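Attaching the record inline, Q. Sequence:
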Amino acid sequence: MSDWIEIGNLTDIPPQGSRIVKGPDGDIAVIRTADDFVFAVHDQCPHKQGPLSQGIVFGHQVACPLHNWSIDLSSGKAQAPDEGSVACYPIKIDSGIVFLSLNKAP
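Structure, as predicted:
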């Protein structure tokens, strides 16, 4: 059994937008940046558990909608001076189709 699940077409996720996927440990935010990179992170800010899927995407970061904490989408780490991190999940794109692994990235 493959650990990759199909999310849909890249174009199904708006630039600087997101989709939510139900994961074994809660919701996963699948986020597309303006330059068409796609990242997947646990959908709760480490500060007050704000939904990152509803945050503002800029560069390769997302700002939590509750208190504006910035989370680096490639590492899941909060940007200084804030501290904390969220789990990241592997993403791959094949022929315009986005796939997500439900196994957390190391």
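The mean pLDDT is 95. The CA atoms of residues 43 and 52 lie 5 Å apart.

More tomorrow.
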